[in-house]
Amino acid sequence: MADDEYLHDIVDYTDDNLDADDFEDIKYAVKLKDVSRVYKAGRIEIEALRNVNLEVKLGDFIVIAGHSGSGKTTLLNIIGSIDLSSSGRVHIMDVPIGDYDEAFRSSFRLNNTGFIFQSYNLISTLTAVENVLFPMQLSEKTPSKLRDEAMKLLERVEMEHRADHLPWQLSSGEQQRVAIARAMANDPPIILADEPTANLDGDSGAMVRDLLAELNSMGKAVIVMTHDEGIIQQAGIRRFKMDAGELHSDV
Ligand SMILES: Nc1ncnc2c1ncn2[C@@H]1O[C@H](COP(=O)(O)OP(=O)(O)O)[C@@H](O)[C@H]1O
Ligand SMILES: [Mg+2]
Fold first, then answer.
1. Top mutation candidate among 36, 39, 49, 242 for ligand 1, by most atoms within 8 Å of CB
2. pLDDT in tens, 15-68
3. How many Å lie between the centroid of ligand 1 and the Cα of residue 90?
4. Which of 250, 229, 251, 248 is nearest to 52 (CA)?
5. CA atoms within 13 Å, Cβ hemisphere of 135
6. How far apart are CA 47 and CA 139, in angstroms?
7. Is residue 7 scored above 60 in pLDDT?
8. Which phi and psi angles does 26 have, rounded to 5°?
9. Least buried of 22, 78, 116, 157, by fewest C-beta within 10 Å?
């Protein structure tokens, strides 16, 4: 298929030791062609995405706004290989991810995408550092090396002093910073965020905005679903709107 001509056989994208050089030949971090997603609930069909087209390169910062129910989370789940499209082609890091089984997709997901949620989604029985370690479970590195890496990620979000605290012992902003450290585990080239500042106060929101900008400046593709003007108005961003499952560029 013509779409797949630039696929590379040599790089193993499920390898957790990839660095920037391995991504040099990547054409698109995300490429969606006529992607639709229909949910079937009994006899009712809900068209959550309608013929969505999107091309995102490494280093791009994409912001998508849209009313509740317009399909933002559905779109992020498809880009994050959590969900499959009903029709259309989905390439993530040039890999036609829908052609693979769930076992491949789950390890691909862990190494290629970091997810940040509106309500943090930390595992309540795990400490901050254990939450950051969670996506590293397929790594072959030693436990002490992994712990060092997790602690470094907590330092990046200024949460290393709270490493052994449980989520309920942390404020909203602190939980989201831990969640961002978790999203950076395995150094994924793509960061996906679903209304990441919606539940945060001004200062915490500003810190999350800065961290997203920093991840983007490291060369990652950052895709954020948000209404936060502080994110939307940043320079160098590509803006879109979701409306009833359709994606429109908003320039
Ligand atoms: N698992 C599901 N089953 C059925 N309908 C769903 C499911 N998830 C989402 N939907 C529907 O799909 C549409 C888009 O939802 P969603 O992607 O969550 O929108 P947003 O994130 O923009 O609020 C909505 O009409 C929603 O009710
Ligand atoms: Mg949503």
1. 39
2. 555 555 667 789 999 999 999 999 998 999 999 999 999 999 999 999 999 999
3. 19
4. 248
5. 30
6. 37
7. no
8. -70, 130
9. 22
Phi (first) and psi of residue 172, to 5 degrees: -55, -50
pLDDT at 79 over 80: yes
Name the token pair of 96.
Answer: 């036609």
**Does 215 have pLDDT greater than 90?**
yes
CA pair distance 83, 110, nearest whole angstrom: 14
Residue nearest to atom 14 of ligand 1 (CA): 71
Our mutation pick for probing the ligand 1 site, out of 46, 70, 83, counting the most ligand atoms within 8 A of Cβ, is: 46
CA nearest ligand 1 atom 2, residue:
39
- The Cα–Cα gap between 27 and 228 comes to 29
Kindly list the distances between the CA atom of residue 55 and the CA atoms of 43, 51, 154, 162, in Å, as whole numbers in the listed order: 34, 13, 31, 38
The mean pLDDT value for 154-180 works out to 97
Radius of gyration of the chain (CA): 18
Nearest CA to ligand 1 atom 18: 73
d(CA 41, CA 45): 6
